[in-house]
Amino acid sequence: MKKLTFSFIILIFLVFLVGCVEKGNPPRSILTPDENSLPNPVFDEDVQPKETTSWQNTPLKDVSSGKSFKISDFRGKNILLESFAVWCPVCTKQQKEIQKLHNDPNLAIIELDTDPNEDETKVLEHINRNNFKGLYAVAPKSLSDALVDEFGLGVISAPSAPVVLICEDGSSRFLKRGVKKADKLREEIAAGC
Description:
single chain, alpha/beta, Glutaredoxin, five-stranded mixed β-sheet, 7 strands, about 35% helix
């Protein structure tokens, strides 16, 4: 009886197995894709810096003063551009480190809210709650998209404390993820783009 039960189970298994196998052979391209058929993922570390690009000419508005400006207005200075969200505690830590650099006359600091669900009112409340100074703006979608095109998705991933260094000549590079102490930011600025 055990042999008959075992044989029956094997038979049922084989029937199910045969029923799951598609008749015919799959196209060879599915089995062996050529080099050109697979997309190459782009990681933040692989994105190369470019010279001044149109995103640096996007009109922005300082939420504290209401004055309009563009990132390119600060050409000739080094610029730290941090993208953030007001709900992000890591961003607030990074901003506290960046605040320590505001006395450098050769450095411009721009804090850019890239969360599409936040507005100028929320950003202004964030500034006031933390006693922050400097330029704070809400990024239009076109600017966020352009930053992603140039630096990868990490540039708008608030919890990774994204910071872009824009050098005096307008060239730029994305700094490593994580909260960067003020001294480390000074080193990055000294290293240039």
